[in-house]
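Newbie here. two chains, one complex. Structure please?
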Amino acid sequence: MAKEYVKYVDVTKCDGCRACMVACKNWNDLPAEPTEFLGSVQSHAKTTADTWNVLQYIEHENGKGDLDYLFRHSSCFHCSDAACEKVCPENAISYTKYGTVVIDQDKCVGCGYCVQNCPFEVISLKTYKDKNGKEYRKSHKCTMCTDRIEEGLQPACVTTCHTGAMEFGDKDAMIQKAEQRVKEIKDRYPNAMVYNPQGVGGTHTVYVLAEKPSVYGLPENPKVPTSAVLWKDYAQPIGKAMIGATTMAVVGAFVANKFFSKKAGNDAEDGGGSHE
Amino acid sequence: MIKSVVSKEYQDLQKKIVQLQEQWKQQLNPEIIRPNLDKAAMEAGVPAAALTAIDFEISLFQQWIEEISAILINSNPELEPKLSGIESLLNEEIAIRWIEEAFAFNHVYFASFAACHGLEGWIPQFLAETALRPYLQLTAEKVQHEIHHSNPGAGCPVCGEPVRLATLKEEGKKVIHCPRCLAHWHAKRLECSHCGNEDHKTIQFLTIEGDAVSQIQVCGTCHGYIKIIDTRQYISQPSAALLDLNSIHLDFVAQENGYHVIGEKKETN
């Protein structure tokens, strides 16, 4: 396995400039998405099929009665144990050797299971029309710029970040950095923590959060949904075994039928003979 | 791996050589480098290495040449008959001469040496240069704190190599790297390293479609160029020597567009 990389996001250094959103659109050639005014400076409510990372702006009243203006670069977490990968019936979602989670657009049938099961709600479906006017869907999300990583380059969002809120590097080094940073900011943000949830096996985007995950609308302890585990680890293998059993039954029936119908045919001949 | 026009085999060979040079440099005692930097001479563009006394160990130099030959033969066994005679040729006298001439980058001497001894033209200078570099690199390391800029047209302030490679660092600072001695120094973003031209109207940038990290800065006044690589985007920082090699396509593009490694100032009456 090649080196596992982690995108380190220190939200306390982010100044909300949104350059990461622009860099992502630019590198991945994603179209602009006009949106309604949401009552804050935030542009999109959440990530979409054409907007793979969104900057969250959160007005949060901290324990001392002061208002904190919190920012968070939100995009795919690239879970080590990814629910989307587990539920995909077409095996269109897979892990790369760098630890990133990617969707094979040729295999995706747009069923939307991944969208329903992502604990962080970062995958979305996009509807296309083929040349006959028939609609079909494909799911999309951040790829962590796997195409750039393959060429030895950092993800576009990290490259463009001018405050140093994002860094990209060796998994262990980045996690260590996050832990160190949390110690530094404990005075300013007593609830600060490293967000690298173990319920999904750890993630390849590791956050230094200033507040509890729920303040950012993140699950405190995300898990791969039980239904997904049941589906992938039990239902599917049993289903495949059942297909085997069914096939055997069909083949058996065919052989038996052939034999039986031949006999029946003879009977008919005999019957025909008896009439004469 | 970063895409390159250079074959994987040649990149691997160069990586091995760069690693070896680093090891050799570690073996050297820094005391053998005694810089005697003269401010006025440096300002006039005399390379620091020319103002430095270096105690070369001839037997070590001969041993390194043997090691390089071994690496070359290992990567391409066909080279064995071409390289086998070198060790017997390289007595102490010749080794001293090689060091001196490699130091001065005297390609004429090496070409005639090759012709005299029936060697392929590239062999003597390649071996001598490769084995000299650890000394130059140690010198650069030792005087690095004194190196802040280079004089336009004077090349590397340590070894005199023409300027051709720069990287972009934090806050977009342009840092020029010498792929020969690995010295580095800051330069203005809008300045030609060859002629000192700072007129933004005559400095242009050529870019390669699909190459997100490289640009070629060309000067309309002296027709010189340098390659600028945005290494801030790299996951790990490669050595300047390998960066120079892997970006060789930029040299082709620049030269095919009529720009030169060394600027030529056109005399106007």
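Moderator note: Chain B has a mean pLDDT of 90. Chain B touches chain A through ten residues (CB under 8 Å). Thread marked as resolved.
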